Amino acid sequence: MTQTAEEKAEWNREYRKRNKDKVRETNKKYREKNKEKIKAQKKIYTKKNKEKIREQKKEYNEKHKDARKIANKKYRMKEENKEKARERSKNWAIENKDHIKAYNLKNKEIKKAKRQIYLKNNQENERARWKRYYHEKRPLMLERAKKYRKNNEEKLKDIRHSRRNRNVDYVNKAKSGGCIKCGFNNTAAIDFHHRDQKDKVRDVSRMISDISTIKKIQEEIDKCDVLCSNCHRIHHYEERNRA
Fold it and tell me: Is there a domain that residue 234 lies in?
């Protein structure tokens, strides 16, 4: 009597259940013997069914999100798996670069906002990761930076000029209230006097030239009193004489 497809499938299930070890061993031997054949078949299937596979993975990942997160973390923590995981990620990115590019373009603002939140909440981890990466890839990064500077001289010059002008305007605005002692308010002769030299990181005037960020400049200004050049010199003269 001929078996129906359902009956045959049921028989196969029962057989595999009764002979787990035997089936596992047979499959293992087959895979080892036909590695290249299986790889080629998978490649063809994946190419033909990209969207279907992507949807299935998406559905599965969503359903098992927490369990996968824990398993992935455990896997990556093992030293012998770190390089494998990096290589796998790299290969996946190469194979799916068009999809990644389209996704990133479509979700640019969302990704940017999420990235900002992540960086804010993981500053120490990111700092440590960056230091580790820089230490490992220092020669490569220096070479890239050198090449970039060489190919973008004019662009970098314009950026430096623009930032310096921005810093000058910001510092002049901070000076505009004038000297706190005599009221003189010509910004060309106004200085920032550090109230405590121990807190001083750098002269504000030098921070303009080395294109420091506005945040860093403001942090330094907060440590200072605004004095005209004369009052500044008189202050230091009196300070020395007191000592």
Answer: yes
Q: Is 49 a member of any domain?
A: no
Entry pTM: 0.48
Q: Which two tokens stand for residue 222?
A: 């907060």
Q: Which helix (H) or strand (E) segment is 192 a member of?
A: strand 190-194
Taking residue 228's Cβ as centre, other Cβ atoms within 10 Å add up to 21
Written as six digits, the tokens of 52 are 């279907």
Rounded to whole angstroms, the Cα distance separating 159 from 156 reads 5
Q: What is the pLDDT of residues 39-70, one digit of tens each?
A: 999 989 998 998 999 999 889 988 888 888 88
Tokens 């909440």 found at: 121
CA–CA distances in Å: residue 215 to residues 170, 192, 236: 11, 16, 28
Range of the domain at 14: 1-41
Looking at residues 9-19, what average pLDDT do you find? 87
Residue 13 has pLDDT above 80, yes or no: yes
Partners of 183 in the β-ladder: none
SS3 164: helix
